[in-house]
Amino acid sequence: MSVPGISPKVVRGGFVLSHPGGPRRVIVFQYNPDTLTRTMKPQVPPDEPGDRLEALRLKGPPQESYKFDAEFDAADQLDRSEVDRHGLHPVLAALEACFSPTLFQLEREDERAGQGVLEIEPVEGPLTLLVLGRNRVVPVRITEFSVTEEAFDIELNPIRAKASIGARALTVDDVGFTHPAGLLFRRNLQKRQDLAALHFTNGGAEAAALNQLAREG
Predict the structure, then answer these.
(1) Nearest to 168 by CA among 12, 69, 41
(2) Nearest Cα to 38, choosing from 127, 104, 135, 111?
(3) Alpha carbon distance 47, 55 (integer Å)
(4) What is the pTM of this model?
(5) If we measure between CA atoms, which residue out of 68, 65, 61 comes closest to residue 192?
(6) pLDDT digits (tens, 9 = 90+) for 105-129
(7) Which residues partner with 69 through β-bridges?
(8) What whole-number distance in Å separates Cα of residue 169 and Cα of residue 60?
(9) Phi, psi of 7 (to 5 degrees)
């Protein structure tokens, strides 16, 4: 219940990063995105002339991608000591950690190469969760990232910045059913099915009329 004269607490979106066995690290968006572009590409079998059995089949979950801007302003965060000293460099570096290997990982790869290891697996990045409210907690891979730094302090630290981010949702096709990202995908899919069921159930008279037309057609 909201109290008159008191604004409700706004839920902030952001990223949560985790390595196996390591602590979770959180990046909170200073301002929630004004717009979010979400694209879904159904996975269907390749078109084969005359193969009518494949027309309605699905190969797997759709490929889903997100695009949005995350804006930051140091003037509203001067109570944070790192912002007062370094501007927005810390939060921008934290965002880059979503898709950049650590120095330790690179040095370990170089050490193994020096030991004559023939096949070196690529380093594994953190499991990155895009959190945009209770109904959208999605394991993602960052696919695009660009930053526009719009103003600077006297030491050339950025004090206003906009990060344009593209991300692709991970599914069981990418990581399997037992990986933590796969478990999250399954949970999200069930949640979407539950939300869709609410809409189907509460369709009302207009939905009944449309269904009747479909039957007659």
Answers:
(1) 41
(2) 135
(3) 8
(4) 0.84
(5) 61
(6) 889 888 888 887 767 778 788 999 9
(7) 164
(8) 13
(9) -70, 140
Tell me how far apart the alpha carbons of residues 152 and 150 are, in angstroms, rounded to a whole number.
7
Cβ atoms within 10 Å of 71's Cβ, excluding its own = 16
Question: How does pLDDT run across 154-188, given as a tens digit for each residue?
Answer: 999 999 999 999 999 999 999 999 999 999 999 99
Euclidean distance between CA atoms 176 and 165, whole angstroms? 25
* Structure tokens, 145: 């990232």
Q: pLDDT (tens digit, 9 = 90+) per residue, 18-37? A: 987 778 899 999 999 999 99
- Give the amino acid at 85: R
Q: How many CA atoms lie less than 13 Å away from 36 in the CB half-sphere?
A: 12
Give the whole-number percent of the chain exceeding pLDDT 70.
94
Return the ∠ at Cα 64 (arms to 60 and 65), rounded to 5°: 155
Share of the chain above pLDDT 90, in %: 59
Q: Which two tokens stand for residue 126?
A: 């953190």
CB 146 within 8 A of CB 164: yes
CA distance 88 to 97: 14
Length of the chain: 217
Cβ contact 61:171 at 8 Å: yes
